[in-house]
């Protein structure tokens, strides 16, 4: 997958050099490129923002600077499906998504991550201040580009960079070959099962007066699976009653219902 990130703080994205995502980049599974928005500003101060039309607090990022930046990034990448645009304006084969982190977006969930992991190309536009001029997403959507304005939760960050890192990590770990053990993606919290993952324990079996449940040492895989499922349902009910309400009743078996 090719991922381009445009930001006024490119160094913010340096953490994506580390850990599993860094390894995936080294292995060529992810081609991540970070661009400085100010490279497309024209004045001596490399200005990227201006006061809001209609008045009000804060600054808004200028559509002309963003337009030049995104045109250039979209036009680059002839070697990847989904880019660049053909001279007629249509996108090449493949799926390119312009992703704009914003607290005013649709909520990014594991389902969103799974969907976006199917794209060939992501272009992530990180806004600061009061955000990017609203005509920018509208313009690219009208040009036939898939635009997703997404929020990572009901709180406000100072800019899109931290949210971009969250979303890129959630998406990239779903790409084939990025995780050592693909089974971990299937069983974890927020997988299609709709439950939080069961609790995790390791050795020592007794620690500071706390004993691990005996069943985990039994070697009886059916009993272990049952105990883990009961625990997952109990903790989901306690911590996330909204997830229990949203469960498809057919995913519960008769023993779940009894519990
Ligand atoms: N930018 C600022 N706050 C944000 C949030 N909660 N999600 C995505 N982008 C943001």
TrEMBL record:
One of its GO terms (biological process) is tRNA N1-guanine methylation. Its EC number is 2.1.1.228. One of its GO terms (molecular function) is acyltransferase activity, transferring groups other than amino-acyl groups. The keyword Transferase applies. It is an enzyme of class 2 (transferase). It catalyses: guanosine(37) in tRNA + S-adenosyl-L-methionine = N(1)-methylguanosine(37) in tRNA + S-adenosyl-L-homocysteine + H(+). S-adenosyl-L-methionine binds at residues 127, 152-157. Belongs to the RNA methyltransferase TrmD family. Homodimer. This is tRNA (guanine-N(1)-)-methyltransferase. The lineage of its organism: Bacteria, Bacillati, Actinomycetota, Actinomycetes, Actinomycetales. The chain holds residues 1 to 259 of 492 of the full protein.
